[in-house]
Amino acid sequence: MSETFERLPEDKQAKVLDAAFVEFCEKGYEQASTNQIAKEAGIGKGTLFYYFKSKQTLFHYLVEKAFDIAQEEYLDKINFEETDFFERIKQTTELKWAVYHIHSHALKFLAYVFMHADETVLSVELNEKRKIAEKKWATVLTYNIDFSKLREDIPQETSLNFIRWTVEGYRQELEAQMKQLNFETMNNEDMRPYFDEFYGYLETLKKIYYKKEEEE
Amino acid sequence: MSETFERLPEDKQAKVLDAAFVEFCEKGYEQASTNQIAKEAGIGKGTLFYYFKSKQTLFHYLVEKAFDIAQEEYLDKINFEETDFFERIKQTTELKWAVYHIHSHALKFLAYVFMHADETVLSVELNEKRKIAEKKWATVLTYNIDFSKLREDIPQETSLNFIRWTVEGYRQELEAQMKQLNFETMNNEDMRPYFDEFYGYLETLKKIYYKKEEEE
DNA sequence: TAACTTATCGACCAGGGTGGTCAATTTTAT
DNA sequence: ATAAAATTGACCACCCTGGTCGATAAGTTA
Q1: Distances from the Cα of A21 to the Cαs of A14, A62, A167, B26, B142, in angstroms?
Q2: What does each C-alpha distance from A202 to A86, A87, A170, A197, B8 come to in angstroms?
Q3: Is A158 on the interface with B (CB under 8 A)?
Q4: pTM of the model
Q5: Which ranges of the sequence are annotated as binding DNA (chains A, B) (predicted)?
Q6: Tens of pLDDT along A69-100?
Q7: Residue B54 C-alpha from the chain's centroid
Q8: In angstroms, how far is C11 C1' from A45 CA?
Q9: In Å, how far are A3, A24, A128, A161, B116 from A178, measured between CA atoms?
Q10: Using one digit for the tens of pLDDT, what is the confidence trace for B98-120?
């Protein structure tokens, strides 16, 4: 399926995929326009339907592609040997930023699929894939983590939630700020202050939620 | 403007407004369909345009209405005499839940307007109103608050952010859960366990971020 | 070069939805 | 009974939809 499309040079593939990712994210499956996708991708409408025989086929291909990216560029790269909770957070967050910087459209699309999983009609196999991925994502911050370092006067699960919510809240606020500036064109040096702020926050969280040293 | 509409019995007004709130939220201004709004509101399309002379007029009316609801049902009811940070959080959260339960569509619409403020074309006066509201909302958790009770080994602003992010994270997770169940029809008794969980979390946060008593 | 395959295009299709109008009708008030 | 106000949906001209297809263009092979 889509052999012709996959024989294309990668940059041209990416242009089409990105155009489609964006369009489906913004408008949803039904309202998304294949005309708009073709135009944005810089190809004729006939060509789009030559690559993918229908709107649905294209959509399914996108889902598959987005899953693959998340798997290969994110999940597979996590070092699950690291047992320290905050180290894991640091790693996964850095990883997420890196992937986001290159594949932001794909990741936003993936988020859309997960959020609208009930309304988007997926094939049975894709739905299976989705469920498996969902489970895997849930373990990212828990698998092989040493929770014994957490303070004991607060239920472990509560600490975990609080930390997760704090980090996620910071991420969201950062994202909102980034939306103003043009995030895509920022290089690593521009990101430095934000990284540093994040590391500072992590240290503070450690101070809050880990046992005090003198108690160990 | 819209005198005819405002002479309608309130429940009929509400039906029209809710239909419009939902449609604009889901599809955005351009894609929203006046046909769909009329159908969902149970009125003829001609009637809709008899009430509001155009799609834009309707949209502006909605924005105004949503602002008014937020102002009267939420902002005006906050007790700014209360200086304890966590009491303020508790109050505003309870208030938010109460308003949300009655005016969920209006509030979601308001959130939409704030989020897409750059793309939605508002009149100059409405934009002014938006900016003022934005400022007022920002002070909800800071105005006349006694911050001296916060622990001193963490920068005040950091503590504030962490608490805000934690509460907001909990709220979001709750909202996602509620989406599964039918939130609209839940009575106060059904909400009890969630309220209790929330109060428990607040106590924990107090333990974390306030000075230890023996230090006072 | 000629023959053949593969890739690309956009005009075109039938169908449906768009915001908005309006003459006809019903409801309400006098 | 009469006038005024409220309500309706068929209708308008227009735009866009997913998808097709014959006409080219580009690439490959001999």
Answers
A1: 10, 7, 27, 19, 40
A2: 7, 9, 11, 9, 56
A3: yes
A4: 0.91
A5: 33-52
A6: 999 999 999 999 999 999 999 999 999 989 99
A7: 26
A8: 11
A9: 37, 22, 34, 25, 15
A10: 999 899 999 999 999 988 877 77
A146 at the B interface (CB within 8 A)? no
A144 touches strand D (CB under 7 A): no
* Nearest residue to B4 via CA among B59, B42, B61, B79: B61
A42-53 pLDDT, tens digit per residue, is 999 999 999 999
What is the Cα B118 distance to its own chain's centre? 19
The CA–C1' separation of A88 and C19, in angstroms, is 54
Dist. CA B87–CA A163, nearest whole Å: 22
Closest of A96, A103, A8 to residue A47, by C-alpha: A8
Token pair, residue B201, equals 């979390």
Q: Is B115 on the interface with A (CB under 8 A)?
A: no
CA pair distance B96, B175, nearest whole angstrom? 13
Integer Cα distance of B150 and B142 in angstroms: 13
Nearest Cα to Cα of residue B207 among B68, B86, B122, B104: B86
Q: How far is CA B12 from CA A21, A47, B167, in A?
A: 40, 50, 36
State the Cα–Cα distance between residues B102 and B104, nearest whole angstrom.
6
* Per-position b or e across A106-126, b if 16+ CB within 10 A of its CB: bbbbbebbeeeeeebebeeeb
Distance between CA atoms of A135 and B49, rounded to whole angstroms?
Answer: 49
